[in-house]
Specification:
The protein has 383 residues and is α+β, with helices and mostly antiparallel strands. The protein has 3 domains: 7-172, Uridine Diphospho-n-acetylenolpyruvylglucosamine Reductase, domain 3; 176-259, Alpha-Beta Plaits (2-Layer Sandwich), CATH 3.30.70; 264-327. The protein contains 11 helices and 19 strands. The strands form 5 sheets. It has an 8-stranded antiparallel beta sheet. It has a 5-stranded antiparallel beta sheet with strand order 3-4-8-6-7. A two-stranded parallel ribbon has the order 1-2.
């Protein structure tokens, strides 16, 4: 993966040098689909001018793409070769860019079964706060000494620098995909989903909402058929019910609505005082013991989308997980993650000091207010 220095990158370098001289922050932005996710200040540095596929080797299962490339364009290119990136990042709105997807680090219903974005990043190019174009990783999976910076960029929200391009591992599209549904309570759904993690079954997604568990299976036909048989046996054994296959078109619409967060649960706030929380727990923890509202559950119950007035970060942290105030409808402001453990915060601070000591990029992106409204307001700052 050779370092690409074109006119756009040179213009970005000049913007960075000017900002350094003036002490003015820069706001790295693609299509703006994640503008709601945290806050930041500064002059916009639009990445969409730097778009396109740098290289794509279907036989090598790797693609290198510029950060401003629309995610939909990358998907179209992969579809032509019957390949995919299976982690299902949420689009939230049309126009999401590759750089935005990687820097946000968010994944969908398939995360627990196929891995997250970080598992597919092979290498990246980055402009640091001095305007230096740095290369990390490459186009093959390998062990590294020290920080694997290309993967550190996943979820960094652009605070470490301006990613110009990234290399990603791709996979063949599954030969067969189908979705089953089962009427059951949350506890039964969680017990069923835990079996997915200890049995060789071709599950690539699960979601529970309003008393219905949806399970997606994908892979070779023999593996999918074996998975269907196991699921039906487990449902009869544990719940006394039966899985029913969902029409393919309805199934695609369902999983797409979850990925794009257009499913009504993501916007159906019970009141102006309720915030939408993204809460994660270890799979072995009884989720209902932490919070009685079931909400929308994915990842076998490990990820829950909950509407609540109270601050959920404290009980979920005490249970070994974390809760992020994702959306506050009344103010329109989103609150980022709860404070990390002190050792993790030290690493974050050290990384920021190395890459951007003057906080030039996406300043205040990780300044957080966990809740607004009648609950106590707590503010955190992750440098």
């Amino acid at each position: 993966m050779s370092v690409e220095m074109n006119d756009t990158v040179k213009a970005w370098q000049a913007r960075i040098h000017e900002a350094q001289a003036n002490g003015a922050p820069l706001r790295i932005r693609g299509a703006g689909t994640k503008d709601f996710y945290g806050t930041c200040v500064g002059d916009v540095l639009d990445t969409r001018a730097h778009a396109g596929i740098v290289s794509y080797e279907p036989t090598e299962l790797v693609v290198t793409v510029r950060a401003g490339t629309p995610w939909a364009e990358l998907q179209r290119v992969l579809d032509e070769q019957q390949q995919c990136l299976p982690f299902e990042p949420p689009f939230v709105a049309q126009g999401a860019t590759v750089g935005g997807v990687v820097n946000a680090g968010l994944t969908g219903a398939a995360r627990l079964y196929v891995g997250g974005i970080r598992d597919y990043v092979l290498g990246a190019h980055l402009l640091n706060a001095q305007g230096e174009l740095l290369k990390f990783g490459g186009q093959v999976m390998k062990n590294v000494a020290g920080y694997d910076v290309s993967r550190l960029l996943v979820g960094s929200m652009g605070v470490l620098g301006l990613m110009t391009q990234v290399s990603l591992k791709v996979l063949p599209q599954p030969k067969e995909v189908l979705t089953l549904r089962l009427n059951c309570d949350f506890h039964s759904a969680q017990v069923l989903c835990r079996r997915f993690l200890v049995k060789p079954i071709a599950v690539t997604g699960s979601a529970w909402l309003d008393g219905v568990l949806s399970v997606r299976l994908a892979g070779m036909p023999a593996a999918v058929n074996a998975g269907v048989s196991m699921l039906r046996d487990w449902a009869h054994e544990l719940v006394g019910g039966a899985f029913v296959r969902v029409d393919d078109a309805q199934a695609v619409a369902f999983w797409t609505a979850l990925q794009e967060q257009s499913q009504p649960h993501f916007t159906a706030s019970p009141s102006d005082e309720h915030a939408l929380w993204r809460a994660v727990l270890p799979t072995a923890v009884d989720a209902l013991a932490v919070h009685a509202d079931m909400g929308l559950a994915m990842w076998g119950g490990a990820l829950r989308w909950l509407w609540a007035v109270e601050d959920l970060s404290v009980p979920f942290k005490a249970a070994g997980g974390h809760a992020t105030c994702y959306r506050t409808p009344k103010s329109g402001r989103v609150c980022m993650a709860a404070p990390t453990a002190s050792n993790e915060q030290r690493v974050q601070t050290a990384l920021k000091a190395q890459f951007d000591p003057k906080h030039l990029f996406n300043r205040h992106r990780f300044d957080t207010v966990t809740h607004t409204g009648p609950a106590t307001v707590e503010t955190y700052h992750v440098p």
